[in-house]
Amino acid sequence: VQLQASGGGLVQAGGSLRLSCVASGRTASVIGMGWFRQAPGEEREFVAHILWYNGATQYADSMKGRFTISRDSAKNTVDLQMSSLKLEDTAVYYCAARQGGFYYYSGSYEFWGQGTQVTVSS
């Protein structure tokens, strides 16, 4: 499975940004897709997840109400709509796909996109 993320950029605090991830290859083996992020000097952290077969979603507590993950099964895409962005949301955002394991654990994800930079300015 190959993942291609896009949509990062520079945005002011309080603004919005939409990230997209396109999956290709043997996507039939994927049960869920997630977004993670990593700020400089920090560990990679879970952001959001969506189950591929029914669209059920999960979020990290700090993202609830601000971020929305969605999927388009026909296009094999997963989007992350981010609103009310804060300075601390600045990070490289990665989309990832898993075939099992736990949705919140980065080690459960076998496939990763290249990452896209999100920078929130004051």
DSSP helix count?
A: 0
Largest sheet: 7 strands, mixed
Q: What's the pLDDT, averaged over the residues?
A: 96
- Radius of gyration in whole Å, from Cα? 13 Å
What percentage of residues falls in helices of 4 or more residues?
under 10%
Spell the H/E element sequence. EEEEEEEEEEE
Features:
globular; 122 residues; 7-stranded mixed β-sheet; mainly beta
What does this structure look like?
Helices cover 0% and strands 52% of the residues. 30% of the residues are buried. It has 122 residues and is mainly β. Strands 2, 4, 5, 6, 9, 10 and 11 form a seven-stranded mixed β-sheet that branches. The model has no long low-confidence stretch (mean pLDDT 96).
